[in-house]
Amino acid sequence: MKSRKIVCRCEDITEEEIIHAIEEGYDDIESLKRYTGATTGACQGKGCLMHILRILSQKTGKSPEEIGITTQRPPVNPVPFYVLAEGEKE
């Protein structure tokens, strides 16, 4: 069985899928994000963005500075910490 190199754990995206998307023409960080869903998981790219930038840089010949980073957005409906801290009421 071929081993899979997971790049984005939140969205379960492999290095092979990132490379395929770049070869399909999604060769900038924003279009790659929209096509694959990478960096859109719970971590908002904190765990995978640098890996994706490395792959994109290698495949396009652009420096990470030229590529830039994606826009990180908070959840649509943020939950205040006090709600999470209260736990279940009996």
Uncertain residue ranges: none
What name does CATH use for the topology? Arc Repressor Mutant, subunit A
* Shape estimate: elongated
Q: Count the helices. How many?
A: 5
Instruction: Give the % helix.
Output: 40-55%
Across the major sheet, the strand order is 1-2
Into which percentage range does the β-strand content fall?
A: 5-15%
Q: Helices and strands: which structural class?
A: mainly alpha
- How does CATH name the architecture? Orthogonal Bundle
Summarize this structure as a short list of keywords or feature phrases:
two-stranded antiparallel ribbon; Arc Repressor Mutant, subunit A; 90 residues
Would you mind describing this structure in some detail?
By secondary structure, this protein is mainly alpha-helical. The protein has helices at 15-23, 29-36, 49-60, 64-67, 81-86, and strands at residues 6-8, 13-14. It has a two-stranded antiparallel sheet with strand order 1-2. The mean pLDDT is 87. The radius of gyration is 16 Å and the shape is elongated. Helix 1 packs across helix 3.
Quick summary of this structure?
This protein has 90 residues and is mostly helical. 43% of the residues lie in helices and 6% in strands.
